[in-house]
Amino acid sequence: MARFRYPDDGPPADLTIEAYGSTLEEAFANAALAAFNAMTPLEAIEPREVKVLEMSGEDLEGLLFDFLSELLYIHDVELLVFSEVEVKMDPEALSLKATCRGERFDPARHRSGVVVKAVTYHGMNIEGEKDGWRVRVVFDI
Questions:
Q1: pTM score, two decimals?
Q2: CATH classification of 4-140, choosing from 3.55.10.10, 3.40.50.620, 2.40.10.270, 3.40.50.1000?
Q3: What is residue 7's predicted lDDT score, i.e. its pLDDT?
C-alpha cells in the first residue's frame, strides 16, 4: 500500500509530497506514486505496460531527482501513468532499478489532476526515521 501525503507547508503554487517507507526503496517508490496520484488517481490506472529504469546518481538526493525526472519525461513523451512502482537499490553504489507498471493516459477513463512540470531540489529531504524512511520532494506545477 502506497504511503504518502501532500503537506500544505510547501511553497505556494508547487506540489509538495512526503512519502514514507520501511525501506529507502519503498520511500522512493511511494514518492513516484504520490506524483502520479496527483496527476491522475492511482485506482483508475491499470498495470498494462511495464517500464524498467536503471540509473545511478552522485548522492541520494541526485538519485531521487533523476529517478522522478525520468518518470516525468516518460509521462510527457509516452503519456504513461503508473500505479505500481517497485524499486531495488544499491545505496553504496548509489544506483537503482525500478520496475513501473501502468498504462497510457486515456481521458475517457482517467481523471486529469495537476500538471507536474519538473522535480526541484528545493526543500528536498531524505531522512531515516526510527521506523523507516521519509522522503520530501517539491514539484514545479
A1: 0.93
A2: 3.55.10.10
A3: 86
